[in-house]
Amino acid sequence: MKKINLITLLITTIVFSQQKKINQPSFSTKGKTITVYTTTGDSDIKLTKTDELSFKELNQPLETQTCVFVNPNKKFQTFIGIGGAITDASAEVYAKLSDEAQKEFLQAYFSKQNGIGYSLIRTNMNSCDFGSDSYTYIEEGDKELKTFNIEHDRRFKLPLIKKALNLIGKDATFYFSPWSPPAFMKSNNSMLKGGKLLTEYKQSWANYYVKYIQELQKEGIPVWGLTIQNEPMAVQTWESCIYTAEDERDFLKKYLGPTLKKAGFGDKKITVWDHNRDLMVQRASTILDDPEASKYVWGLGFHWYETWSGGAQMFDNVAKVKEMYPSVNLMFTEGCVEKFNAERYNFWGNAERYGKSMINDFNNGTVAWTDWNILLDENGGPNHVKNFCFAPVHADLKSGKLIFTPSFYVIGHFSKFIEKGAKRIATSASRSQIISTSFLNPDGKMVTVVLNQSDEKVLYNICIGNTAAEVTIQPKSIQTLIY
User: Fold this and answer.
1) What is the pTM of this model?
2) Single GO molecular-function term (predicted)?
């Protein structure tokens, strides 16, 4: 009798769950209005509400009509967030601003209502190039880490991180990346110019991550995750350290993974690679094909600097990793416009680079997207090796004013409107002049972002099922459609 009741209960549960799934309401455009927000290069239209539109019947688009097709029935990865890096440089510049400018800056980045709603923060463990000096958290030669302390960060970096996290609230995601171990742990006895982690210090270096997490959490900073090494194949004039794919795999499975787990930090999300799209398929194959290493991997991180070779961005490599390893999480961990030039603060091409990358990366399976420095000064620094770059926001420390570049607003077309937990929705354009991506927010609102890469105004239809609305987008513009 008990056996029959158990079977009956099981069948009832399965039927009920299937009915519940079938009865879930599908996305409908009926009665919905599209609110359009636009940013256009060379104009004052910056994240400006520019239109309200209604859906009308359109059963079969013509070849002569430009369309963006959105299929709400096809859902993909779950969105985590968009943000940037709070480096020593960003924190040093922020500390030099007036109270009024500091408040303006924090609201602009981290408020959904008054700004663009960043929810993701990356920072550097030990120094990177963006800061006034090189440093570690221990005295040179301290293999046992007895002198470990993060006092250096308490002056500038930690106060800014805490303020940002406080504004973000429950949706905050915080992770860190090292650029180099201390000099004595490396083959070149320097934090700069590459070198490799010496075998006799691998356990000590793994312990270093644990110490850092412990110290951050004592400060009330919840650590979500970490990357193993920033740009592990680049010998830079600044802080850098080389790991081949096999080096990173073996350090993860023999040292870092087990050490974090033993310390009670097995829940921290470990991201591998953290370098350009060019070699990401090879790195993924080497690490994720090893079951002992892959069990510690949450995701694979990537940057956009593969263009140093003179070629285009390798967006397809992101899709290839997702195709090969569907369960791996993909996260954009760094990108900025290199070679600072104050005359190009308002250059639309810099902003378009962000929009193009974000749309392609999300469409290829990326769950989170991290810009580089959130703030730099009027020289594109400070940077202790003079590697000056652009940030979405600069501070002119002579006048005390903030400079919001077009890149800030383009990022905002995604970060302000896409909510944590949103699902990416199948989206495609019928013409190459425009590219697009869509997300369905947890509250049922659809967010579609459209970038016009051309020098011509484009009239397009946003099409869902047999309904559509006609939208005009100006040349060199980006739009967010909410409906």
Assistant:
1) 0.94
2) glucosylceramidase activity
